[in-house]
């Protein structure tokens, strides 16, 4: 059976700021002293170390009052710390050690630090470990002042619950009730989750349909784009073919135009040379005709001069067969 081996205190209530250690042997142990000497503070220290947080149960206005106030010669400590050492030879406490030490330190900020065999631990985890050995701050392993009278006044149902708490059945009932409550909460959450899953499933189906529609629209747009590109490519090929044909025709026309222009230039040059030759021939013929007239007739006016005067007023047309037709002498 687990039993308390030692109590250590520093800065807790009226027990003083110095480290205090009280060994507790097996059997019946009595602590005596005058009123106000701090006997009840030892029980307060034990239930404080076991995790009690009620100022009323600890008989203080607030948890900060648990720290020793100090005196004229001593300063007020910065924290209150209580350590309990248990005999765990029968391994009732689920810890592989013959001795289990728990401690709680309350700082001026109100923060509590719990330790199990020198290692930090959360209050809930520490309570679960100690409850296995039926060690709790609210159990009957600690009988406070006036509790015997209250127990004697309990009705049968309350006494039964108290006995179940003493043997540990009440703890399992509490855990069962807590588990059932958690199961009910889980069922409600599951129903809510299933409803949400149904809504999400419907939404997913709707989104999937919209996605398929979008994919179909995109596919059709790609097909339209491809057809447009094919049509434009075909038109472009036709335009390029027509352009090439017209460029070839333009090149042929340009060649012919150059040939015609060259031929035109040749004809113009020939016409100019013929005009020059004609002018020379006309001049030569006129000079020759004038000389013959002077030689044949002298200086008297004749019908030839009159004809010459008339011939000057008329245009002279020359042909290959008739070079001197305007100068006919009768």
Helix and strand arrangement:
Layout (H helix, E strand, L loop, with lengths): L2 E8 L9 E4 L15 H11 L29 E9 L11 E9 L4 E5 L2 E3 L1 H9 L15 H6 L3 H12 L1 H129 L5 H11 L17
Antiparallel strand pairs: 1-2, 1-3, 3-4, 4-5, 5-6
Spatial arrangement of strands, main beta sheet: 2-1-3-4-5-6
Just name the CATH architecture of the domain at 3-154. Answer: 3-Layer(aba) Sandwich
CATH topology type of the domain at 3-154: Rossmann fold
Distance between the amino and carboxyl termini: 184 Å
Just give the CATH class of the domain at 3-154: Alpha Beta
Can you count the helices? Answer: 6
Main sheet properties = 6 strands, antiparallel
Query: How much of the sequence is in beta strands?
Result: 5-15%
Poorly predicted ranges (pLDDT <50, ≥5 residues)? 302-330
CATH homology-level superfamily of the domain at 3-154? P-loop containing nucleotide triphosphate hydrolases
Helix content: 40-55%
Order of helices and strands: EEHEEEEHHHHH
- Give the overall form: rod-shaped
Classify the secondary structure makeup into a structural class.
alpha+beta
Q: What Rg is obtained from the alpha carbons, in whole angstroms?
A: 68 Å
What's the mean pLDDT score? 82
The overall strand count is 6
